[in-house]
Amino acid sequence: MTTITDRYGPVILVTLLVGVPLGALAVALLVRARTKAGWSRSWAVRASISEVGMLVGTAPWLWMILTPTAAPGGLQLVPLRDLLDVLRGGDSLVQVVGNLLAFAAVGFFLPVRLRLGHPRWVPLIVGGVAAGLSVVVEVLQAVLQLGRVSSIDDVIVNAMGAVLASLLSMPWWRSRRSQPDEQ
User: What percentage of the chain exceeds 70 in pLDDT?
Assistant: First the structure.
């Protein structure tokens, strides 16, 4: 039986040693370009961190989710059945936490970047975007025959994780500073 570090250690290392530094560089370059283009510095920083944060925070999870396995794979379209099976199994914490975190960066940064209207709509919009992205990933797992179970429960938990993350970023997306025209 392989451990999490055996299985995903390279993803973690590449993310920390390459993804995060390249992300920081991308933020700096975007802020510079946007301030030269007339954006306010505060909005250039906020938008750049949000965009790069969504990418750097989601890419490692997609790498892990789309890594082929030797398992037979499958399709589970009955809600909560797969989740209950996972919770009865030994790796339930890893599975559930991983699914909660898969699109958490999107959930955290999307409302900050897009200034998504009234706070009551933000969880619905973020949940919808995350669910849509998750459906794409689950379809890819099935079509590419990666040896993974494509499950409606993964879509539900991925969306729930994004919504919870959006609530964590509420102080930033609820602020009503002036929003520039050049988005």
Answer: 92
Rounded to whole angstroms, the Cα distance separating 85 from 15 reads 30
In the chain the first and final C-alpha atoms are separated, in Å, by 49
DSSP state of 126: H
The encoded tokens of residue 74 equal 């499958």
The phi, psi pair for 76, rounded to 5°, reads: -130, 105
Cα–chain center distance at 12? 15
Residue 5 is which amino acid? T
Alpha-carbon distance of 84 to 157, in angstroms, equals 12
Complete DSSP assignment for 21-75: HHHHHHHHHHHHHHHHTT--HHHHHHHHHHHHHHHHHHHHHHHHHTS--SS--EE
Judge contact between 64 and 97, C-beta under 8 A. Answer: no
Predicted TM-score (pTM) of the model is 0.88
